[in-house]
Amino acid sequence: MDLPRPEMFDFHGVHMTHYFTDNWEKVQNFKARPNDIVVATYPKSGTTWVSYILDLLHFRQTDAERENTVPLDERVPFLEFFMPSLYTPGTEMADMLSTTPRIIKTHLPVQFMPKSFWEQSCRIVYVARNAKDNVVSYFHFDCTEKIQPEPGDWKSFLQRFKDGKMVFGSWYDHVCGWWEKKQMYSNIHYMFFEDLVEDTGREIRGLCSFLGLSPSEDEREKIRGAVQFDVMKANPLTNLEDDTTLDFSISQFMRKGKVGDWKNHFTVAQNEQFDEHYKQMMKNATLQFRTEI
Ligand code: A3P
């Protein structure tokens, strides 16, 4: 599908495209329900992975039909996404969900979250990924995703990432903003992509304990198997193969799923400059990432 790449603009201090701001009033006035579960992430941090885990934890046993027929992006609506020519707006999809709980995904930085989620004390799962792998994944995604701004070459993309001129803004502001919020609001479960790769079963147990779920060990093991990279890649409902704006000839949505792929992209000089810049930007010493496991 031939779509013009959108321009980015400064939106209340955060770079965005119109696909995520055109429905702003409805997003901001969205009515959360107390049992809603939100998956919040900076793009390319493992949103789809954790959305799928949460969906399976809640519905695998009770609604096998839905699990096998409905694409994940319909089961877990993307709140702020607005492209009415092709998709039902995220707010409407969420309103139409008949399941309880609703699982809703967002990439909004913490200061943009609709206030109703805080008022209803909704549980929020935040997933963060180390900056180096995050920017590599974002670069490949923007090459593939026609409704993202023109990615340019790797060198300029990396510079733009450091400058925070990415859709949904600065990685630094995003991960730190949500980290700080977590210190004040106990209903945030802050997870790391690297931990999920290292030990998916342990992270699923952590999610169960946060959500008050107690599936059997056998059930947890089945879910762990279903959310392995190769299994999700082979599943058209989780590899987002229905997404007409992705160009699969460039890259699969489920691309590599590794920790440390940045080493195949950063030159030695880029890595040194990145580390120096990172030290300046990450003032919060309590938030630590692993770039290898
Ligand atoms: P890569 O591009 O590094 O492969 P998001 O869902 O936030 O867009 O994140 C996408 C990234 O998560 C992609 O990273 C994708 O491959 C990875 N991912 C998704 N499911 C995964 C899984 N089951 N195991 C490992 N990585 C996964």
From TrEMBL:
Q: What is its EC number?
A: 2.8.2.-
Localization, UniProt: Cytoplasm
Name of the protein this chain belongs to = Sulfotransferase
Instruction: Give the UniProt record's GO annotations in the biological process aspect.
Output: catecholamine metabolic process; xenobiotic metabolic process
Q: Which Pfam families match?
A: Sulfotransfer_1
- What are the residue boundaries of the Sulfotransferase domain, all occurrences included? 34-284
Q: Name one GO cellular component term.
A: cytoplasm
Q: Does the keyword Cytoplasm apply?
A: yes
Q: Which family does it belong to?
A: Belongs to the sulfotransferase 1 family.
Gene3D superfamilies linked to this entry:
P-loop containing nucleotide triphosphate hydrolases
The terms under GO molecular function for this entry are: sulfotransferase activity
Q: Which PANTHER family match?
A: SULFOTRANSFERASE SULT
InterPro entries (UniProt xref): P-loop_NTPase, Sulfotransferase_dom
Q: What is the lineage of its organism?
A: Eukaryota, Metazoa, Chordata, Craniata, Vertebrata
Q: Which keywords describe this protein according to UniProt? A: Catecholamine metabolism, Cytoplasm, Transferase
Tell me the superkingdom of the source: Eukaryota
Among its keywords, does the record have Glycosyltransferase? no
